[in-house]
Design brief:
heterodimer; A: about 325 residues; mainly alpha; 2 domains; two-stranded antiparallel sheet; about 5% strand; B: mainly alpha; two-stranded antiparallel ribbon; about 0% strand
């Protein structure tokens, strides 16, 4: 009975007795969730357009962040470093399309999945080789990102919001809206949606798959860069980030591989659920449950909807 | 065109069902076994045995395990590392609870525990498929890894939290612990791998293996043909985790000899084994060995081979270059032959069959 009380009732009593703490925890979960969602977003873009389970998205985040900071340290002013980084991400997209995707066209999914592992290893080595393996400070001031924190007095306590977190949430939202508009109203966006629907049909109306892939990987690269900046500004830019990027995977299965809104909502569910779980239920089992709780939340959802919350319905034909 | 060897006729069903229907294959296998059992232990030095051969054997066992699941049944798993960990901890518990039990039995029985855990985490595979399943198996990876750290009972409440390998012997020869000679460890490992490969080859070519492959090719069709999906998928998970568990136990007890086990069974280990399976060739036992040989010897080759070629390597740079090279090689092999080294071998065999008249 005691253990049941501790699991089922006590955490909620704690929440009720200190609502400011609850709000703080939810806010932290929300911000982490936004960042998970950003990584998942880059992933969804690629999966939709080319059906590649891009494991390298996490390392692309690190790589973009590192390139930006590394270029700045080499003496380029911040705006130019930003532009050069974008160029680098474009080159990366072109190279990946040429070297990896084009020869592997029409191969089973798992082979392409493995190829993105190869890309991951390659980028880890390349990034460390060029910029060194030490964690770097993100150049947040030079990029005009806000610092410090706001405190609100509410619910009988204080809730502290870091300004950078607010900025991250706002920027993420702007980017998602921009992507949605881009997908909905531009020529390229329409082509992207056509490719996502069916490769063959898109080819038959004269859409160049290769071109689309470059664009999509570049778009994922831009998303990776923004994620890298935001995440880097919260902690620092290091290869440790790619482990955190693994957290984007449960977000994906929760939201569905093919859905942009799914990535966002999945990210928020995972982020908030994980923080709440760690804070209120974690101590019961000795803490550290953050590492797997996200997967269990996602698994639970999957048992009811095998294609994720917003994924395309899986139709099987014989 | 499908050619067979000339002059080798099958006159009864037993011949047709034989594991190695071709004479050349039998001879080749005999030579490999002779080299493995006689030449390497007698003429190989300690370095070859303990840094090349034993890791290779351990990894090939794990790769066979994953290949059963991913290559034969078509279920992608990213939790192999954790299942190996289950084997290692189970073996540690078994060997400390039953100190008189033969260590080989401990290692094999630890696979049973791993299989049970595997079945448990295989349950979602009934509803979830493809990459959704792959990510779901990551839950096993992270959850089990967390258990290895947070449940002190698993490592007998010792302070370091590491697995301690005590000295055990079989027939009076020390095989585990600090005093075991590389030769004896190697032979034990080799016997284990030979036996388990033989079992796997037989199971996979029989009814169970065919059911696995039917599920891989299309599970709905397999179900219509009367294959029980629940049983088959769970059996594949059990079978695969059994091999992974034995590999993990062998890794801790025969290869590494104890230590901080949690780091050895992390997600990178799972990915590494998946690499082996893919590079070697999905759905091929030979592929498991080739992939394991390639991936497990790659760091050693790069470490000792590059300086020999005149490329000087300082510690950190070497590590970065290794990453770039491993990534590059994986991409290269995938682009050249997406179906793995085993397919290359098949193509070569086909060429030899028709040589010298290719038409």
């Amino acid at each position: 009975m005691d253990i049941l009380f501790k699991i089922l009732i006590d955490p909620f009593l704690q929440m009720g007795s200190a609502p400011d703490l609850l709000v703080q925890t939810i806010w932290e979960g929300f911000v982490t969730g936004v960042l998970y969602a950003l990584i998942a977003l880059g992933f969804v873009l690629i999966f939709k357009a080319s059906g590649v389970f891009n494991f390298a998205q996490g390392i692309m985040v690190v790589f973009a962040g590192l390139t930006l900071v590394g270029l700045y340290e080499m003496g380029l002013p911040a705006p130019i470093a930003l532009i050069v980084t974008l160029l680098v991400m474009y080159l990366l997209a072109v190279t990946i399309e040429r070297v990896v995707l084009r020869p592997l066209v029409n191969q089973p999914d798992i082979i392409l999945f493995m190829a993105t592992f190869g890309i991951t290893y390659f980028l880890i080595g390349l990034g460390e080789f060029i910029f060194g393996g030490n964690p770097k400070q993100m150049i947040s001031e030079q990029l005009y990102l806000p610092k410090g924190s706001l405190e609100f007095k509410m619910l009988g306590g204080f809730v502290q919001l870091q300004k950078i977190d607010i900025a991250a949430a706002v920027i993420a939202m702007i980017m998602i809206i921009a992507l949605a508009l881009f997908f909905q109203y531009t020529r390229i966006g329409r082509a992207l949606r056509a490719v996502a629907d069916s490769h063959k049909a898109a080819l038959s109306v004269g859409i160049s798959l290769n071109q689309i892939w470059v664009i999509v990987w570049f778009a994922a690269g831009i998303v990776a860069l923004v994620t890298g900046i935001m995440w880097g500004a919260r902690s620092d830019v290091s290869f440790g980030l790619q482990v955190i990027a693994l957290k984007a995977l449960p977000v994906l299965i929760l939201g569905g591989f093919t859905s942009v809104p799914g990535a966002i909502i999945g990210g928020l569910i995972i982020g908030i659920g994980e923080k709440l779980g760690e804070f209120y239920w974690g101590p019961l089992v000795g803490g550290g449950i953050e590492s797997w709780l996200a997967y269990c939340i996602a698994l639970f959802f999957l048992l009811f909807r095998p294609q994720g919350l917003f994924g395309d319905k899986i139709i099987e034909r014989i | 065109m499908f050619y067979r060897e000339t002059g080798q006729f099958k006159t009864n069903y037993a011949d047709d069902m034989a594991l190695l229907p071709i004479l050349q294959d039998r001879i080749g296998l005999g030579i490999i076994l002779f080299v493995a059992y006689v030449i390497i232990p007698f003429f190989g030095n300690d370095f070859l045995l303990s840094t090349v051969m034993i890791p290779f054997l351990v990894f090939s066992l794990a790769a066979i395990g994953l290949n059963i699941l991913t290559g034969f049944t078509g279920l992608i798993s990213l939790g192999t590392g954790a299942f190996m960990g289950v084997g290692a901890y189970a073996c540690y518990k078994l060997s400390s609870v039953f100190p008189d039990l033969n260590i080989l039995l401990c290692i094999v029985f630890s696979g049973v525990f791993s299989a049970l855990i595997g079945v448990l985490f295989g349950l979602p595979s009934l509803r979830i498929k493809g990459f959704y399943l792959a990510v779901a198996t990551l839950a096993a990876q992270f959850f089990l890894q967390w258990c290895f750290v947070r449940i002190p009972w698993l490592y007998n409440y010792n302070v370091s939290g590491a697995i301690e390998v005590s000295q055990r012997s079989i027939f009076g020869v020390v095989v585990t612990g600090a005093k075991a000679a590389p030769e004896s460890r190697y032979i034990v490992m080799l016997v284990l791998v030979t036996l388990m490969t033989w079992v796997a080859a037989n199971v996979l070519s029989g009814r169970i293996g065919r059911a696995f492959m039917a599920v891989r090719d299309m599970d709905i069709a397999a179900e219509l043909m009367g294959i029980d999906l629940l049983k088959t998928k769970l059996l594949a998970f059990a079978f695969s985790s059994f091999y992974a568990g034995v590999a993990g136990a062998a890794m801790m007890f025969i290869w590494v000899g104890g230590g901080e086990a949690n780091d050895s069974f992390n997600i990178n280990q799972s990915f590494l084994i998946l690499f082996m399976v893919i590079i070697g060739g999905l759905g091929s036992l030979l592929g498991a060995f080739l992939g394991a040989a390639f991936i497990s010897s790659l760091p050693t080759i790069l470490k000792f081979g590059l300086p020999a070629l005149g490329i000087p390597l300082a510690g950190a740079t070497a590590e970065h270059l290794t990453y770039i090279l491993v990534g590059g090689l994986i991409l290269f092999f995938l682009v050249v032959e997406p179906h793995g080294l085993a397919r290359l071998w098949q193509i070569g065999k086909q060429k030899l069959r028709m040589w010298p008249f290719p038409y």
